[in-house]
Amino acid sequence: MIAEQAAPGGGADTETVLRIVARLTGIIRGECAAIRDNPAADLSGFVEAKNRCLYELELAVGDDRSILTHAHAKTAFGQLREAVALNESLLQAHIVAVGDAIGVVEELSGAMPSDGTYGNPARAKPAAYL
Questions:
Q1: Nearest-angstrom CA–CA distance, 123 and 54
Q2: Most C-beta atoms within 10 A of its C-beta, which of 89, 94, 107, 117?
Q3: pTM recorded for the entire structure
Q4: For residue range 99-110, what is the model confidence (pLDDT) as tens digits?
């Protein structure tokens, strides 16, 4: 463990911050793996866990941003930054894929005969002809 503790005067506890950052990095990497393994995976648990870690990190750091200059913290935050960048790209690809699927469904539903209630009104037939 890192021997450095809270600075006199109430600064951030380095060990606590590093533990939270490591946990957050692990959660994000886990979400990345879940997206890769199953694009239809329920990610709500990851979202909740990330939010909880971010809240804990904000509490642990508080107003003392000097911890960000600590060598171990720089390394930990660098790893977190890499995990977040990968997470962002995977989530963006996931969003695009969902949008593509919605587009296909909309296109198919618009091509289907309809009474005008759903689908493409231009292709709608009066209810008497259904």
A1: 50
A2: 94
A3: 0.70
A4: 888 888 888 877
